[in-house]
Design goal:
It is flat, with a radius of gyration of 26 Å. The protein folds into 3 domains: 42 residues, no CATH class; 115 residues, Four Helix Bundle (Hemerythrin (Met), subunit A), CATH 1.20.120; 45 residues. The longest helix is centred in the last third of the chain and has 26 residues. By secondary structure, the protein is mainly α.
Amino acid sequence: MEECVRCVSCTLQTPVAFSCRMQGAHPRFWSCLAVVPLFTCFMRLYEKVYLVIKGPPEAKHISLFDRIVFCLIICSVGLAVFESEYTIYDRAPRFFDVSAHIIGVIFLIEYICRVYASKADPRFQGRWARLRYMFSFWALVDLIALIPVLVQLTGASPFLVRILRLVRILRLARLGRYSTAMDGLIEAIRKRRFELGIAFGFAFIVLLLSASGLYVVEASRQPDHFGSIPRALGGASQP
């Protein structure tokens, strides 16, 4: 029993280690699985937070925490869209403003929790785990999505408010965190970034040559639109 308890104890060092070692556990592991709750109390706080964010190791779907965040993202984007129609916004401005602030504060708390718990993530181990997480792709997306919250607290001009609504709509990008297909797409782009760079460069060269041709032919006839190559670039990019 002592050997089995030691097996359970080392398995619970981190939530990730728990999930990774479930398949190759000690032969007597399952017989004393009842002692697992006794060892969870020794988990560090950031490991417990990570377990709440990611859900139980045996879960096949996203955690309850992520489901709530998923719904809040949809609500936030919906509010930003309807806010842009003044006939709707003027009917209940306080509702829209208070809802946006509440959701924003929840996102801020979520971001802090993710940064704090990132030390338990196997992808960000080591002394600078949290700092490396903060510069990861999805953490930067989360941080950009928090810009409206930070700016609205200081007050903003009408033009800046419109920009912030756009940023709130861009929170849809956070949904990619919950899609394995999105992860596959990002990985494919990363592997083919050199070929994609060549393709974009070739497209820009074709566009530049087209603009130069328009400049040579149309500069004297339509100087306002084709009087320079930069102006002609705008005309060449139009269908």
